[in-house]
Amino acid sequence: MLFRKLLLLTTLLIYCGVLVGCGKDSASERRVLLATTTSTAHSGLLDHLINAFTESTGIRVDFVAVGTGAALKLGEKGDVDVVLVHAAPAEKEFISAGYGEKRIPVMYNDYVLLGPPEDPAGISKCSSFQDAMRSIAEKRAPFISRGDNSGTHMKERACWDLLGITPSGSWYTEAGQGMGGCLLLASETKAYVLSDRGTYLSRFDDLAIQILYEGDPLLYNPYTIMIVKRNLRPDGNYAEAKTFADWLVSAAGQERIAAFRANGKQLFYPDAEGKYAQ
C-alpha cells in the first residue's frame, strides 16, 4: 500500500513539475512538451530516444508519462505539443475530433500475459488470447488490471467485451497504476497481468511472474505519434514538435529504436512504414 501511494505521488509531482513553466517564455532554449505512456518511460526507451534527439537537434524534450487516455486528454486541452501513445481506436477519435493533425506510425512491440509459474488458470496451454482470458475469469484466478484507461487497459477491456465478460469480484483488482507498479503488485500477489513486453523485459529480474501466454495477433501493440493542432496550443512549440515527430520516423530515430536493449533483448521494433499500425 505504501509503495502504491509513493508511486502515485511521484507521478503527480512529475506531472505538475513538467506542466509548470514549460512554455517558450520560461527559457531561451528550444523545447517540446510530450505526453506519452508509462511503457515508454518505465522501459527506459524514452530517455534513450530523447538523449539522442536533443544531442542531434539541440531541442529539449520535457515529458509526462501517464496512461494513454490521460495523455490524450492533455492533448485535447492543449497542455502538450505532441502525444506518443498506443491505442488505435482512441487515437482515431482524437484525430476525428480535431485535436491532432494525423497519426504517424513509429514502432511496435507486443503484449504478453504474465502470471505465477504454477499457472493455476492453465493459460500456457490455451490456443488464443481470448481463451486465456476466459480461463482466468472462469477460474477466478487473481488478475491485476491497470484500471487507468491506458492503452494496456483498453486492450484488456476490449478482450473482456469480445468475451461478453464483465470482470468483478475479489479476484479482479483495478490497481489504477502504471505498468511498472502493476507488475510489482502482480508479482507480490501471485496474480495474472497483461503487460507490454518492453516494460516486463526491462524489469523481469525483480519479478516472481513470467510470460505464460504470447504470440496472438490480437496482442500486437503499435505506437503512433500525433502533433496537437496549433489552434489548441497557439503559444506552444509546434515547429519543435514536428521536428521531434520527423526525427522519430527518420533513419536515425528508427535505428535508435531498434538499438534499444534491456537485459540483452530488443524491446521495441521500428515501424515508420506502418506495417503493424491498426
From TrEMBL:
Pfam family, one: PBP_like_2
Cross-referenced PROSITE patterns: PROKAR_LIPOPROTEIN
Domain PBP: 27-251
InterPro entries associated with the record: ABC-Tungstate_binding, PBP_domain
Highest taxon of the lineage: Bacteria
Gene3D superfamilies: Periplasmic binding protein-like II
Protein's recorded name: Substrate-binding domain-containing protein
Provenance organism: Eiseniibacteriota bacterium
Lineage per the UniProt record: Bacteria, Candidatus Eiseniibacteriota
